[in-house]
Amino acid sequence: MSDPSAERHVLVLAGGRGERLWPWSRPERPKQLLPLAGGGRTLLAATLERALALAQPEQIVVLTARDLVAATRRECPAGVRVLGEPVARNTAAAIGAIAHLIGGERTLAVMPADHLIEDRAAFRRDLEYAFAQAAREQTLVTLGIKPTSPETNLGYIRRGAPVTDRVYRVAGFKEKPDRARAEEFLRTGEYRWNAGIFVWRARVFLDALEAHRPLLARGLGTLRGVKAADFEGALERVFPDLESISVDYAVLERAPNVLMVEASFDWDDLGSWSAWARRQPHDPRGNVVVGNVVPIECDECVLVGEGRATTAALGLKRMIVVHSDGDTLVCPLDGSDRVRQVSEAARARGRGDGR
Amino acid sequence: MSDPSAERHVLVLAGGRGERLWPWSRPERPKQLLPLAGGGRTLLAATLERALALAQPEQIVVLTARDLVAATRRECPAGVRVLGEPVARNTAAAIGAIAHLIGGERTLAVMPADHLIEDRAAFRRDLEYAFAQAAREQTLVTLGIKPTSPETNLGYIRRGAPVTDRVYRVAGFKEKPDRARAEEFLRTGEYRWNAGIFVWRARVFLDALEAHRPLLARGLGTLRGVKAADFEGALERVFPDLESISVDYAVLERAPNVLMVEASFDWDDLGSWSAWARRQPHDPRGNVVVGNVVPIECDECVLVGEGRATTAALGLKRMIVVHSDGDTLVCPLDGSDRVRQVSEAARARGRGDGR
């Protein structure tokens, strides 16, 4: 370890609580733990395969909720470290904590555990390139995905002045636009999806946090120099009092030294039933039918049954019907962005988690 | 028993297999065994209460499928006889068999077990009146219900020449008209719903069967004189070879001596989810919500959940969502007449019965 900046670390953020694919995903079985990556693999397992192309297992940390540590660990190869957060405090605190754990000059790639990326070679190439940018400059690097549809559920990055091949300054971030603006973003060609994939040196990130969110930086400061063995205990003491804010709001939207690397890999956040369904085989009437379903005269529907229970759909058009673990969701196909409301309501009624 | 014609018998037809309220009703728990009659009573129990106002328990026979005998007996007061059919052979064979059991000059009222009638006093009055017509004349008496909506799922009786107060000759039967014809039927004021409630002397019915369906009459003939104790065994031998045909097609549409008594009682066959829902309390947005349902921005929906399972409906309009015994039905409110297709399809796949 003569040159710590050459040492690459990966932080996999696996704290999602699985609200948008309810009732398939659930607080105790969030999206990253569902076998959505093809070949029966979970999204988390596939994410770790990609991470292992970038770093040694011992340099990979998976951060999740404490009650998901055991289930998360089952998806991780030997050597990968799984840490449980005592409470959820969003991405700025999570990344800041791990920046302290790995230490100053080392470079850290951050990636969500629950996205689908199939072109592993392109992912590796792009991340290598991002590592190189982050090592060379005092910069925060974010990956930008070329949008393929006017999604209203994602954050967009506006491309600024070009710096070098496929690298741009960032002209701004736009969180979840309405449909008209999303279509405009697509037309201009200047916007990229924010996939939550970042690369930076630990010190550069902590400096930016200090500059733009000093209170949060101070709260995290007590984690500096804590030994790895004591780290989870330290999180326990420190986390509850930290501000809960995304890294985009806390740092990226404010810092002047953010660069965007244009990604060449495919990407899907599978962030809704309709997003999931787009990737599934369709029957001649445009339905996605999975499991024990009786579809009669249905068109362009997403119909998911389970086990021996019969899920019958009669005369439906552009509807989603999902039955999983005894619970049932019915909504229009175009309303699948709002499924989070359902899982929140189900949870508020003391259901939906851990029956 | 000096005047056997004064002796009144009641046959309750309880052979329905529960297809139209699937998945609540099922082959092993058909509509007549569901607590739909108010006060937690089954429709069958309420039917028997009405029958007991007309006849002694010992003069009441309930005919059902053999596998439903035990469940049916639980709903019956002491003294009422429950008989199981070895196979279903529709109403003509069922009524003919029981006509042989009770014998020639006695009068028999026939009524389905799975209809909702709330005005018991009016029902009793009307049936007394029908008994009087049937005793006096060589006639087959059918009850006609004044229609309140253009149902396409029911049979209609066209009123003919008046005979006496509220008694008419029958000008014809019309089975399940399309919407336009049903509306026309309502407009003319000349049509009544066929509720499947009949009164006649056993001999008069058997004579009519002999005249219009001689083969079926002959098949049933071996039941003549069979002792009550041996009757179920005789059904076993005779039933499988009998023609399966409704009493309407076999006799009523052909016989010249049919009279219609206009009913003054309320009547509902609860023959679909939308029919059931019309009688339930509605929320301010017009939804019927029963059980563990999370309705979010729904209008004019029928939403039925069950137990601890969450049934979530998001942004639906005029839809039916029913979750019962693990199975789920989703269809438009206006499509509830077609639910039978679903239960048939579910059964054809070896599901839906007796899991």
Q: Give the CATH level 1 class of the largest domain in chain A.
A: Alpha Beta
Structural class of chain A: alpha/beta
Classify the beta-strand content of chain A into a percent band. 25-35%
Give the CA-based shape of chain A: globular
CATH topology of the largest domain in chain A: Spore Coat Polysaccharide Biosynthesis Protein SpsA, Chain A
Helix content of chain A: 25-40%
Measured distance between first and last alpha carbons of chain A: 48 Å
CATH superfamily of the largest domain in chain A: Spore Coat Polysaccharide Biosynthesis Protein SpsA, Chain A
Reported CATH architecture of the largest domain in chain A: Alpha-Beta Complex
Q: What is the H-and-E element order of chain A?
A: EHEHEHEHEEEHEHHHHEHEEEEEEH
Provide key terms for this protein.
355 residues; homodimer; 11 helices; Spore Coat Polysaccharide Biosynthesis Protein SpsA, Chain A; alpha/beta
Give an overview in words.
- Two copies of one chain form a homodimer.
- By secondary structure, the first copy, chain A, is of the alpha/beta class.
- Chain A folds into two domains: 4-262, Alpha-Beta Complex (Spore Coat Polysaccharide Biosynthesis Protein SpsA, Chain A), CATH 3.90.550; 273-348, no CATH class.
- Chain A has helices spanning 43-52, 69-73, 90-102, 120-136, 179-188, 202-212, 214-221, 231-238, 247-252, 273-278, 339-348; strands at 8-14, 60-65, 81-85, 107-112, 140-145, 155-164, 167-175, 191-201, 258-262, 288-290, 293-296, 302-304, 311-314, 319-324, 327-332.
- A five-stranded mixed β-barrel of chain A has the order 5-8-6-7-9. A four-stranded mixed beta sheet of chain A has the order 10-12-14-15.
- Chain A is globular, with a radius of gyration of 21 Å.
- Chains A and B meet through β13, β14, β15 and α11 of A and β13, β14, β15 and α11 of B.
